[in-house]
Amino acid sequence: MLVICIFSWCNISLFAQKVGLVMSGGGAPGIAHIGIIKALEENNIPIDYVTGTSIGAIIGGMYAMGMSAEEMIAVIKSDDFKRWTSGNIEPQNKYFYFTPTPTPGIINLRFALDKKTGIDLREVALPTYLIPPHEANLAFIPLCAQANALSVGNFDRLFVPFRCVASDIYKKEAVVFRYGDLGDAIRSSATFPFLYKPIEIDNRLLFDGGIYNNFPVDIMQADFHPDFMIGSVVAYNPPKPDKKDVMLQLQNMIIRPTDYTIPPKDGLLLNFDLKLFSTFDFSKVDELVKIGYDSTMAHMDEIRRRVARTVLKDIVNNRRLAFKSQFPPLNFERVEVQGVDSVEKLNVEHFFRNRPTVFTMDELKRGYFNLISDDKIAELIPHAIFNTTTGLFNLNLNIEKRNPVKISLGGNISSALANQGYIGITLNKNTQTNYLDIHIGKIYNALALGMRVELPSKQNSYMKLAFMAQKFDYQQGTGRPILFVTCAQQELYSKLSLGFPLGINGIVEGGAGYGLLADYYNSDKSDYSVGTVYGRIENNTLNHVLFPTQGHRYTSSLQLLVGSESLQSGDHPSINFSGNKAAWIQYRGKAEHYFQLTPAVTVGIYGELFYSTHRMSEYYTDGIFQAQAFTPTPYTRTVFNNAFRAYQFAAIGLKPIYNLSKQLHWRNELYWFVPYKQIQLTAGNSATYSTPLSSSQILGETSLVFNLKTLSAGLFINYSSAGNSKWNVGLNIGLLLFNTKFTEIN
Predict the structure, then answer these.
(1) What is the pLDDT of residue 486?
(2) Which of 12, 216, 404, 453 gives the lowest tally of CB atoms within 10 Å of its CB?
(3) 503 burial class (0-12, 13-18, 19+ CB within 10 angstroms)?
């Protein structure tokens, strides 16, 4: 009888033996945690509880949601995960409809005006975080929402019970998550100060749990009382700083020392020396997983001796499949919006559905990225709230708007004469944006003001009104033809347009305008009074406004222009005329596309077609000014080269680009310009056409370009087969951008 009792007690003890896995923070080296899980499951060692901090919370949370080691590896390797950790939104996900007209603005200062509090300058100060949160804000819905719904926000009801730790820096204490929104809990545990924006939960700003508890053994013991613990440590307490290491000084000020130990009687500690791996070595997944796996296998005999209970891997997989089979479909029925007024709320809801039906995660993603492309919105914070009655999710969307006033400062510094200054003022008010832009420089001066209003309708649409006064003074630049002593173009015009989105990356716009234009050349002046109606289509995913290396841009425009021209010649008064009527149609199409052949090599192709029915003036200088220019590079937009102007032309280009780093690349561009008829100068300053397709020109440029998000620095050598100066060398730092001319709508 005694033997039977002892045997029964031993059997119950073995059956009841529980194992807890504790995973530290430590950045990318924490990927080694996956290797430990993989080794334990393959050897039938149970994992009954999981606690983790930072990367340990990410890995532990994914395991608690029912992911296998292979599935976790796939997540870490995915392009989506790279975007979570970098904050970069792919160009194809940017809603081009909201993309503002590019300006030379480099520094943006935002503030609010309030009658009671005065000027709010909080956004003008230095940024509080470096990596934008937009990708991560959305990513944790498809990752966590279904498991969170199944567990009803109770982390004990996940595939395995789970805890993670964040830090409340105001109260200077660790915050343990046992329930709530699983995605918020994991994110707050991994929100490193200054790098990521803090997560706000219950009016508490939460940061990385590693600040106060980077190895939550105490949480494991207090909440779960396991019989045996396995600890995985990929971090260490910051060493004593020296006076030259600012980051180490900050770590010592912020991070509380952690006890990275487990008493031998309570379990086994796996301590990794991963100092050769940086915090952001997320590309070395296989290597780190192998380190964790091999270390665990080296201790497997000891683990087996101390953990007598086993659970077959097939049983674990079957439990995992059974758990995940209960996930509700990730479909949404309602959108609840906070942070905007009733009119804006209605517009927001239309981004997710245009009819009162259920919408999917793909539709949510599309609407989310469409909205976040709006410059008036600082952040969208989405939550998926499960409705147990309908079995569907509600989308709770909290919108944080930017301060309404923006002042932009920028321009370009040039080794030649293309030095430009820029100031822009933007005022956003609900669905209306008002702007004032000022350009000052030797070759270009402009004053632009206007407004854009989002129209209240189910289909996104806008109305724009623009006024422009600008002057291009080519005599101040280099490369002008010797024929011209004075060489300038002046414009005063207004345009009214309506625009609509065309898919995610496209736009269709139509409008009308009126302009007073003047061309100055030597002692002569031509004046034009012109009205226009036009339409244009554009599809754009380029990753940079001046020197793109990814994406594409396709534009097509058609214009009808009607007006009159007057000519006053100081040298040839006999040719003066006034009020000559003219009407013409012109079409312009451009195509630009970049193909990444290898990580180091990108090839771009370019094509442009222009056709106009405008009758050429008999007076050469008048006629050459009215012709349209081919200007595919920033430098060519600063000079007047009559060899690259025509009333009908086609051009193609090839752009081999060598990516020396993410920001630095060596850019080579070669273009072939073919006018249908070349404009030729004859005796008495008269103009005539050449025979069709009888001439062509070559344009080439090589440049070393360093691209940042808001500016570029480029050292270039430019060659043109015709012109006053065939070879030109220069350096530009900033953004060399001009407003479009009245007759150039793309």
Answers:
(1) 72
(2) 12
(3) exposed
